[in-house]
Amino acid sequence: MAVKLAILALLEARPDKGADLAAFLERGRAIAVAEQGTVSWYAFKIDETHYGIFDTFESEDARNTHITGQIPAGLAAVASELLATDPDIRLVDIVAVK
Known about the structure:
The chain is an alpha+beta fold.
C-alpha cells in the first residue's frame, strides 16, 4: 500500500455547536469505512470549537471520489447551522508514514 495523498479539513463550530459538529463527524465514520479508496479517516477535536478531518488515499482518483462524496456533501448541508466559518480544506501530499 502506497499512501501518498491526503485531505486535511479544519472546521470551526459556531458557539455552542461543538457537540453537534462532533456528532456529525462521528456519523461520518460509517460513510468513510464504506469508501473503498479511503485508506484511513480521522475526525479530531482540537478544542470546544475547533475540529478537523484527516484522511488518506493511495491515488488521486480515490481522493477525488471522496471529495465529491457523501461526507463533504453532508457537511455542506449542515455548514450554515454548525460552522462559524467556511471549512479550511487542504489537499496534502504524504511525506512519510509508518
